[in-house]
Amino acid sequence: MLRFFSGGPPTADSLSRREWLRIGGLAGLHWGLLGKNPRSGLAMPGTTSAVPGFGRARSVILVYTSGGQSQLETWDPKPDAPLEIRGEFNAIRTSVPGTYLSEHLPLLAGMADRYAIIRSVSHDDLDHGSAGYLALTGQFHPTKSSNPPVRPNDMPTYGAVLKRVRTHGRFPFEAVHVNGPALVPETVGPGQDGGFLGSAYDPLLLGDVSSSPIAVPCLDSQSELPSVRIASRENLKSELEAACRELERGRNLPDAHFRDLDQAYQHAYNLLSSVRHRQAFDLSAETVAVRDRYGRHRPGQACLMARRLVEAGVPLITVIWNHSNRGQDKSPEATDEYGWDTHNDIFDALKTRLLPRFDQGFSALLEDLEQRGLLDQTLVVCMGEFGRAPQVALEKRFAGSSPGRKHWANVYSIVMAGAGIRPGTVYGASDRIAGYPQAQRVEPGDIAATLFSALGINPAGHYQDAFARPYPIATGKVIEGLY
């Protein structure tokens, strides 16, 4: 992903140049015969007019709770189950009659009439790396239940696909990842960049935005550097690069190398030349009360940054709630390091570290968007890569002295709000121990389809890679029952 200072497809080696050209030509012919734009997933006449929620969102905020948030201790408690299933926490009433949440989410319980809970998400990938890839791309990794490295032929993340099929032009970046990258637990997990589309499609990556008032310090306004001087410097850079390129031709550097650099520079100049765009990164412009409401911690301030980016016109913002899925092993006293991968000590970690901050920050985001009139045009999705097992047990292979819950992908819960989502809805259901879907099963591909549809992009459409090979925008269907 682009920073600001702060079984895949065949490889090129396995096919000849003639074969690449043939494949690309056939793919282009295929799309030409169908009469479709090979790059665009925008709605074709008659294909999406009956889909509820289509095009309702100007922006999407995806809050990614990396590590596997327990459905039983958050959105789907089972107060009538045996103790070894229901765990130590009580369930509390919410603002929606008949709907209960964990006792450690009191703020969100009071706001249950403003969002929808989906309690029947399910898949079969059981490790953080590949399941995180699934959550952030909507596509299964070729090696399920693994922790694979980032590879250049990975599927592109949602924001990269969005940029490929449509460019809004409201902001220099179509997508921004905040508080990233997501680590598993210390290495960058796959599925967060442009993948095979290339680095030109990487989202803008912001790290810890709580560490300084301005998330991108290099964008500080400098009175001694007016716009005319910035333009002069840009012209000088272009002249110098033109000369350098002639020298570099002898080193056989590919044109794509220069295109990527050019795009990075252009994004930087666009940000520097626009006061409005620069100000989007300035959290110090917020009142003390607003910053305190979100919480003076990494995830809270990341959510606040997401709201500011919505106001600035960014179409897709991903908030990495916790930058490591399990950083507590090395830093047990640093709450910012905690992830949702709670194999042991789950109740202490959730009660004292994870849930209070989550309740504060996520409820503040929903409340703030609503009060500012932004929720109706912003789809908010909160989800992890999977959930936790019904049975509470001590796992000897992991740190900690009290029981926890292991990985569980058979069923887990997510939340959606805004952009036409029917508030107060509970969609789907798990069985009596929150172990398997009981009604209205939802898959990650369905979440991806709902996300793109909300942005006005036909999820049944396709986009092409550099070799004109078609790829589906999403593999699932819009969750129409949420609208």
Task: Describe the fold and architecture.
The protein is an alpha/beta fold and 483 residues long. It folds into two domains: 7-213 and 285-482, Alkaline Phosphatase, subunit A, CATH 3.40.720; 217-280. The chain has helices spanning 17-34, 83-86, 106-109, 128-137, 158-165, 227-248, 255-273, 275-279, 288-294, 298-312, 346-371, 444-454, and strands at residues 2-3, 59-64, 91-93, 100-102, 116-121, 175-178, 204-206, 316-320, 378-383, 387-388, 407-408, 412-417, 426-427, 429-430, 437-439, 462-464, 470-472. The strands form five sheets. A nine-stranded mixed sheet has the order 1-7-6-8-2-9-12-5-13, sandwiched between helices. A two-stranded antiparallel sheet has the order 3-4. It has a two-stranded antiparallel ribbon with strand order 10-11. A hairpin with a 6-residue loop joins strand 14 and strand 15 (437-439). Helix 10 runs parallel beside helix 11 (346-371). The chain is globular.
Fraction of residues in helix: 25-40%
Second CATH tier, the architecture of the largest domain: 3-Layer(aba) Sandwich
Number of helices: 12
- What CATH calls the topology of the largest domain is Alkaline Phosphatase, subunit A
Order of helices and strands: EHEHEEHEHHEEHHHHHEHEEEEEEEHEE
Q: Which CATH C-level class of the largest domain is it?
A: Alpha Beta
Q: How many strand segments?
A: 17
Number of domains: 2
Mean pLDDT rating: 86
Estimate the global geometry from the Cα principal axes: globular
Query: How does the major sheet shape up?
Result: 9 strands, mixed
Strand content bin: 5-15%
CATH superfamily of the largest domain: Alkaline Phosphatase, subunit A
Low-pLDDT sequence parts = 4-38
